[in-house]
Amino acid sequence: MYLRGITVGITQTNCYLVGCEETGEGVVIDPGGDPERILSAVAESGLTVRYVLNTHCHFDHMAANADIVAATGALLALHPAEKPLLRAHGGADWFGVPARESPPPDVDLEPGQTLEVGTLRLQVLGTPGHSPGGVTFYLADEGVAFDGDTLFALGVGRTDLPGGDWDTLMHSIRHVILALPDDTVLYPGHGPRTTVGREKQANPWVRLG
After folding, report:
1. Whether this model's pTM surpasses 0.85
2. For site-directed labelling of 109, which of 86, 122, 128, 160 has its Cα 20 to 30 A away?
3. Where are the beta strands (DSSP E) in the chain?
């Protein structure tokens, strides 16, 4: 598996370029800004981007959707519950941040769905709470998961924005993400990577929430 993280935008969002080294097919996860840097990374990788994937649609995870889709011809995929947020420019107006309008999704994601990208299998896990239609992309064969703003290294996603809900977030963390094998490497929307086992043992929000 090819994997590269690119930190983008004013909130230092982790955008991920993930690909199948055998077939050269790939995905861009959460293009939250700096489209020229993301496209440069795509060019360096040599991957053909099949999907642009949004774990959720806050502006710092989708602000470059339009640019990446236009440049690559990739299909945009997200959970249907995120469409109102997508149409609202990811809530950029709440923070006085300019954001280019995203195209509508080509693919509606649902929990239990699997996206095939070359030999990679990306399982869609439902992890709402930070936003109504938050999802995690889990590659069981690779032992990795991309969980957006659900669970961070020693932190959890905020729930004070419209559509957020603490109890729903904690259910997603405890019953979906922490149900994955302990050695699963989590690649969150912000900050460093971590593992399921580490967060079970050391994350204070998980222990208290």
Report:
1. yes
2. 160
3. 2-8, 13-19, 25-29, 48-53, 75-78, 107-108, 114-117, 120-126, 135-139, 144-148, 151-152, 155-156, 185-188, 194-195
Domain regions of the chain by residue span: 2-208
Given the candidates 3.40.50.2300, 3.60.15.10, 1.10.287.3610, 1.10.3720.10, the CATH classification of the domain at 2-208 is 3.60.15.10
Per-residue pLDDT of the chain (209 residues; tens, 9 = 90+): 999 999 999 999 999 999 999 999 999 999 999 999 999 999 999 999 999 999 999 999 999 999 999 999 999 999 999 999 999 999 888 878 887 899 999 999 999 999 999 999 999 999 999 999 999 999 999 999 999 999 999 999 999 999 999 999 999 999 999 999 999 999 999 999 999 999 999 999 987 55
C-alpha dist (Å) from residue 153 to 6, 148, 169: 17, 12, 15
Q: Which helix (H) or strand (E) holds 167?
A: helix 166-172
